[in-house]
Specification:
Layout: H1 2-22, H2 25-38, H3 59-97, E1 100-107, E2 115-118, E3 124-132, E4 152-158, E5 165-172, E6 181-189, E7 198-204, H4 207-212, H5 216-226, E8 229-233, E9 236-248, E10 253-265, E11 278-286, E12 290-297, H6 302-346
Parallel strand pairs: 9-11, 9-12
Antiparallel strand pairs: 1-12, 2-5, 2-7, 3-6, 4-5, 6-11, 7-8, 9-10
Helix pairs in contact: 3-6
């Protein structure tokens, strides 16, 4: 009996021991006891060696970075908007000061007879006749006065660019452009001490304006101030072909002449004593039946420029408002962070 009881007790102890080994708290108790006995823990050490957890990016930091990026983007957009406003204003002023020219050609059958102002000085008018391009007879007794059919007016006035008075012979110019009407003028001048001799002339729009003018001297002074002056030389036949240019703008209108001239040498067949009297020949004719009209068009539209500027200024206002709210929010978050930090330090 004793052997059987002993054997049964030993089996029961082995079963209890195996149950304790299989229990999950067994190893923890052993570790704690062993640690208490040794005075140290036998838990595995951290493989990283630092003993600190890896840093984590907080949401507040991400929000601050995103806010700074937004501020930078809006500052960039503000700079672009300011440049666009400057460019818009510059383009508007450029177009306003430099209008675009629109050129058109108008065909006419006849022009209003222009005024041909001649300044002969010491030269003498020999003849002036209206003829046609294909009907220019040879010269007969050159250097002697001949009968003419031109309307000639003499005007004496104080020139705007000279100190003294000057005399102008104003001739009624050709009108019939289809038949190629010309005006043939001859002058003569005794030999002088000058090395070169020429007769200045000026063209203005309408000969009738001189007739209707109450003060012809003032009218000629204004013409000389506004129109160009050319010359034709002695010993040549100067063929002048005129063309009319009308320029109309927003508040002004002007008329100008353009000319093409050609020189033909005069073969002087007079006796030697008579050659001391220098001769001048000039032929005036219209170049073509077209009148050139130039219109100055201002392409700058103030309404479109104002609309663009309004949009730009609205964008600037929105950007400034957003930047202001963002700065206020950053200041408020900073103050909250400082209060929380002070509270943690106080506790």
């Amino acid at each position: 009996m004793l052997g059987k009881d002993t054997t049964y007790r030993e089996l029961n102890d082995d079963d209890e021991r195996s149950e304790e080994l299989q229990s999950p708290d067994f190893f923890r108790d052993v570790v704690e006891k062993d640690g208490e006995g040794r005075g140290e823990s036998i838990l595995p050490e951290d493989d990283s060696g630092g003993g600190t957890a890896p840093p984590r990016v907080s949401k507040a930091c991400l929000k601050n970075v995103f806010t700074v990026a937004l501020i930078f983007i809006y500052l960039l957009l503000t700079a672009v908007a300011a440049f666009l406003a400057y460019q818009t204003i510059s383009d508007f002023l450029e177009k306003l000061n430099h209008p675009v020219m629109s050129v058109t050609y108008k065909e006419v059958d006849a022009f209003s007879p222009p005024g041909i102002a001649l300044y002969p000085g010491q030269a003498r008018l020999l003849s002036c006749r209206h003829r046609y391009h294909d009907d220019l007879p040879p010269l007969v007794d050159p250097g002697r006065p001949r009968e003419g059919d031109c309307v000639v007016k003499e005007v004496t006035y104080y020139g705007p660019f000279a100190n003294g008075t000057q005399k102008a012979l104003v001739v009624r110019g050709p009108s019939d452009v289809r038949s190629r009407e010309v005006v043939f003028i001859q002058f003569s001048q005794n030999k002088t001490e000058e090395d070169f001799s020429a007769i200045p002339y000026m063209l203005f729009a309408k000969f009738s304006d001189l007739d209707h003018s109450l003060n012809k001297s003032e009218f000629m002074r204004d013409c000389e101030r506004n129109y160009s002056t050319w010359t034709f030389s002695g010993g040549f036949r100067t063929w002048v072909k005129m063309s009319l240019v009308r320029t109309s703008g927003k508040s002004s209108q002007s008329v100008q002449f353009r000319q093409e001239s050609a020189l033909v040498k005069f073969n002087d067949k007079r006796p030697e004593p008579e050659r001391s009297n220098e001769l001048f020949f000039a032929v005036f004719e219209w170049r073509d039946p077209f009148t050139q009209e130039i219109r100055l068009i201002v392409t700058a539209n103030p309404w479109s420029s104002a609309a663009i500027l309004c949009g730009v200024f609205m964008a600037l206002f929105k950007a400034a408002n957003f930047a202001k709210l963002t700065v206020q929010w950053i200041i408020r978050m900073r103050k909250r962070h400082l209060r929380n930090k002070a509270r943690q330090l106080g506790t």
